[in-house]
Amino acid sequence: MGVFCDYLGDKKIPDALKNEFNKNMITLLRRGGMMQFEKVALFGKEISLLKQIEEDEEGKIHFFYNYFEDDAWESAIYYPENQELYSGKIGSDEFNRVICSAYMMYELYGTDHGMVDMNGDIVNPVPYIAWINHVLHSEFNARNRMDWWHCYEHYCFHKIEDDSYDREDCMKIILQIIPKDEDSISGITPREYWDIHFSIMGTSALKKFNAESGSYYKEILKAKQEVNQLFECGNLMGKEKLYNLLKLPFEKRKVIEDENLKAVAEMSLRLPARVFVYLAAEIMNIDFMPEWYRMHDQFYTDAVVSDYLSEDRIKERDNAKKTKLEGLKTSDFLKIDQSYKLDDPEELKDKPDYYISDDDLIYWWDGSDDVVLSEHMIEIIKKWSEELKDIEAELNDDSIVDYDMLKALIDLLSRANSSYKRIFAFRDMFYEFLENNKNIHYVAAVKLFEKIIDDNWEAGKIIEKVGRWEFASKNVTFNEGRVAVKRYLSLLANKELRKKYLEF
Length: 504
Description:
Largest sheet: 6 strands, mixed
Strand content: 5-15%
Number of helices: 24
Distance between the termini: 49 Å
Strand order of the largest sheet: 6-5-4-2-3-9
């Protein structure tokens, strides 16, 4: 069946935020390693070059490949003109996490209470928002998920509109709506939880509570008694009277004199309309949510509702709504649990497990704390620098003139991809090298590339044991040899880092 992700809500972004949203969406996809390809066919060979995602002539951004996963999935498309994102199967690894983060942007910028769904489960927003904050240097939090009721209501409404509503599924979904992070849930009010609970489970257990005067439980118990009395004269008449009341504005409900309605009217000034509807639905033995969906926009929204919280808890809630989630680095966000992967071949049993690190983000290194290379990686780069100097020392004008860099680079990239699998140069780097095809530094760098391909084959040839890429252990697909070749090409594509260590 596969893994799918989507946003259950309206993807419409406020006009004032559309440009910002587009810019941040593209930044997020790029920093998450989403790539496009450009084909080059020369000398009887065809190679693919990686390039940053960008709009095509039709105004859409089409992509299907993730640099960190080195795998392709079903096409995803983003339309900057109307801020629409669409995706197909997304797998379970890096491509998946970046796509889910992209959909999470709608939760952060949208005006509704939509949520990100993965195969029918509502995703925990915390790690995605934390990574978004890291990439965008933003201060988002899980504020949207702090409004339990409206998230739950929105989910059920979406299912009803999609003709896929199932009461049992909606009952289960509330546990997924609640963020797992304590800092994100501290602002939830008890009444929101209990409204969900009572609307699903009914209020039969209310009598068991020794509810304190002024508590929300006491209010609901009193409301239940009044609604029961209203329905004593018959369901239809009771329902009609109640619903007509719920359609009135605050000032009219405030002055109702009808003895049968007065108590309910008084309580409606401080309780949400939904309370009376789920109490009525329980009496009538009907499913509350479809009834609420049908009628909710006709009922009042002007009740002055208490928090039913202590001052300290209210302060906690307000602070939680203002406090950003601390940033989560790309390398930490994209670390993948390999438990579902195939076991390692015997040759790798003593090797440490591969997990993405900042060393895999060489292409995105800019000297900031966003990407910090390990001492081990720096030593490898310094070794390459020394080897580059040795090669340069052996070159002379004649050997440079005679060297066909274009053919050499095509041959080497084709060989690297054929041997190590899914090895690609970056487009901008490729054409930069061709423009400098008689420059000693560039010639030497290509010759060093050949040496790196050869030197790492003993460690890299384990790649030949890979069957289906998505199920293979990352210890195999990202073996030491293959990773070295890939990282060298990333270094060549990063001009700033290349200048720092390779000195050209």
